[in-house]
Amino acid sequence: MSLKCGIVGLPNVGKSTLFNALTSAKALAANYPFATKDPNLGIITVPDERLDKLAELVNPQKVIPTTVEILDIAGLIKGASKGEGLGNQFLSNIREVDAIVHVVRCFEDDNVVHVDGSVDPVRDKEIIDTELILKDIDTLEKRLEKAKKAAKGGDKAELKKVEFIQRILAHLEDAKPARSIEEQDEVEGLFKDLYLLTAKPIIYVCNVDEGSATSGNDFTARLKELVKDENAEVILISAGIEADIAELDTKEERMEFVEEMGLKEPGVNRVIRSCYAILNLITYFTAGEKEVRAWTVLMGSTAPQAAGVIHTDFEKGFIRAEVIPYEDYVSYGSESACKDAGKLNIEGKEYIVQDGDVMHFRFNV
User: Fold this and answer.
1) CA-CA-CA-CA torsion for 329, 335, 338, 340, nearest 10 degrees?
2) Which residue among 229, 257, 259, 276 sits deepest, i.e. has the most Cβ atoms within 10 Å of its Cβ?
3) What's phi and psi for 346, nearest 5 deg?
4) What pTM was computed for the model?
């Protein structure tokens, strides 16, 4: 399934450098505003030690990880919602993504120009928030006008829609993002159909200097305090370090460099996993001699829905799923050993896929 995260932020905060580290796509990263005018799209693999372990046990011909798309969106500035700095174009790019990675500058460097002349992560975050909220208000005012016309006949569903939109507008006008609204499902499907920018789940990435990559600094402390009630993850990354890691050829070289910097793993791994998590995605595996592969499904997916990710015919003709929990597969060492131990479960159409399931589907077309 194709799901997409968008990297946003002010100009010159390190978005394109982070994008390059995530994807090794070498997008233009320059020290001036709007170096990136057109969005760059990359495909990033989701790091998963379980896939490596299964491959070690099965020894397949191919190993295929699961992926998430990442979009590097040009820097927003104050007034973007009114078209400043090609703002309308950039905001429409944000509308395309499923989740937002908001990069905030949390380092001092006289050689890197800040679009507003000084480093202030709180101000920078609020500028982006304001522009997204203003765009959502504009969107809702247009939708409200249409809804009021449709409700003139007294239709109860349309009247409820008007009331719901008005409630969201009041929330936004109080400078609060749509994602923090309670009872989002009160009008079935409407909230999702509004395609609001501030309804999208978000991760904050603090781009810090090398010395602050593990414990942060005063800038990151201020940002964490600001977002503590948003239920959003805050990740510390030195985009410069990540760029250096991405230049290394082998996994061994990268891990050696990471350890030298006092880190447990590349910061981009945490960003990727967080993107995966906030989109409510889980992984199941297929394991055979030809390939060991990770597949992406939404949390709560049934076995037929999971089968459909491989091929629509698998879902249409679904008969049953043979399921081995990952921990059992690793503990017993092979599919046949799991069968002998009674650890292979036969599941039907109602089965809810669990993260880490190793699955084989029986189907008829």
Assistant:
1) -170
2) 276
3) -95, 120
4) 0.81
